[in-house]
Amino acid sequence: MPDTYRVAKLPIRLRGYVEPNTQAQFEGYVEPGDYFVLEEMQGHPTPDTDYARLEVPTLGALDSWICTRWRTQRYATLVNQLKPPPAVRLPFDDDPMAIPEATLVTLLGAFRDFLYDLDEAFYPWALPGIRVPMAPPLRNNCCTFVEALTVKAFADAHGDALVWDARRHRQMMIASSEDYFSPVTAAVESDMAIPAPSADVAPHPWTLIQGWRNQWRSGHTFLIVDHHPETDKVLVLESNCANGLNGVGYRGIGNLRDHGVQPPANWWTLPDVWTWRRVCATYLFRQQAWLKVKDRSLSRLSATAP
Question: What is the largest CA-CA distance in the chain?
Fold first, then answer.
């Protein structure tokens, strides 16, 4: 049998409960979207109702029970889906805009002592075609970190071949409601990246993601350096003030100032490192672009792991 998993498709927002009973403690609302099913109970606690326990990372306990049916009325559709195969790893050797991974890794050191600040963000260096506030103070946010790292790396490698200007900068800052995934658009249109086949496909090494927990609230721009297919763990590089971070670092591992630029060996075995499945369940609305990064070593660790 093909390897599948169970998914609940919610067309509307539903109430989540601690137990499979609407009289149980209310945990919060489960927004419309697709969720992984952890457990099902049919005809419980009476023949009139069915319940499912979903993986809902946006709620405190990371999971929640919803009522999927009351008598003849169904609130969610439960289906089996094939597990997606690992992403084909493109070498980008023949792409003239590709940059060596070492360029990005070397630049990462400049973000070591940055702290997270949503409202006031500064850059460690100038960027082509735009004026940006320069550090100190050493503070940035998710959008400014991704822009500073990627644009500097590609500009250093290609000079004027990388066209960057005020419009591209506004895209990275999501300054317009016309495109809620504009950081992804900017990366693709500037030729730093190619669009992913879909939002759900397993991420490629050095993937840029724009995700939203709700439509369109609680957005986040971040990078996935690698995906370990056997465990589904992802090496998330970001500027954040959550998930063990206050500044730039690896999600579930720690800040660069504490752990260094290199992630721990066998990072995919660490319990607090997220899975791609959890990323998808958290950022229900998302798009991804695959950065043109070649000569990879940091992001090949999981490819050779047993």
Answer: 68
Give CA angle at 135 (133, 138), nearest 5°: 125
Cβ atoms within 10 Å, residue 63: 19
Q: How does DSSP classify residue 275? A: B
Helices (H) and strands (E) in the chain, counts: 6, 19
Collect all residues with Cβ–Cβ distance below 8 Å to 1 and sequence separation of at least 6.
Answer: none
- Fill in the DSSP letter of residue 304: G
Give the tens place of pLDDT for each residue, 102-115: 999 999 999 999 99
Strand ranges (DSSP E) for 229-265?
Answer: 233-240, 247-250, 254-255
pTM (two decimals): 0.86
Tokens 């591992």 belong to residue? 253
Q: What distance lies between CA 5 and its chain's CA centroid?
A: 21
| 3-state secondary structure (DSSP) of residue 108 | helix
Query: Torsions phi, psi of 108, nearest 5?
Result: -55, -30
